[in-house]
Amino acid sequence: AILVTTFQRTAVEQTSADIRSFRVLEVLEDTIISLQNCFKKTNIKIQVACPKELQAKSFPGALEQLLTNLLMNSLIHGFEDGQRAGQIQIMVQLQENHLHLDYSDNGQGIAPENLTKIFEPFFTTHRAHGGSGLGMYICYNLVTTQLQGTIICDSVLGHGVKFTIIFPVSGDWRTKESKA
Asked: What are the tens digits of pLDDT across the range 54-108?
């Protein structure tokens, strides 16, 4: 019953481009549950630190898509398709009118020469295995365009990655054209 409810909520939120109020922890948990099949046979632990009653007014579907891409990148790239054990940490807090989301894993990390390219369309180190190079490009565009925020990646090869994502969660910052 929980899984069905989660999938229903996820389907509605991912197809809706509307701004609305939502519980942030619920969106995080729904996203993780929707990916549990991908992670269940791995030794990857996902830890979430988010105030239980934290409400945000934003685009929950964009947040779910962002998290899905980050989690799948960790699984595929950071932990070698789930063959390596590790940890993913997601920490969320509200500071003034901005949601601060810190996403990190202790996987392989990103080589310095690739770090500046990860948000470019079609850049991938996994093309031979079917990678499209669009996951991080989509993340960048979701954060900077739809959520009107910033995303920064820090990484040291062999020591994982950390994404710092900050976006406004109150008011209506859409342009007049997008409201029509």
From this structure: 999 999 999 999 999 999 999 999 999 999 999 999 999 999 999 999 999 999 9
DSSP SS3 for 165: strand
Per the CB < 8 A criterion, the answer to whether 28 and 44 are in contact is no
Tokens of 138: 């989509």
Burial 3-18 (b: 16+ CB within 10 A, else e): eeebeebbeebbeeee
Calpha distance 16→10 (Å, rounded): 10
Amino acid at 81: D
Q: What angle do CA 159, 85, 11 make, to 5 degrees?
A: 100
Strands (E), the chain: 20-23, 44-49, 55-58, 86-95, 98-105, 150-155, 161-168
Per-residue pLDDT tens digits for 124-156: 776 555 566 788 999 999 999 999 999 999 999
The whole-model pTM stands at 0.83
Taking residue 35's Cβ as centre, other Cβ atoms within 10 Å add up to 16
The Cα 144–Cα 165 span in angstroms is 10
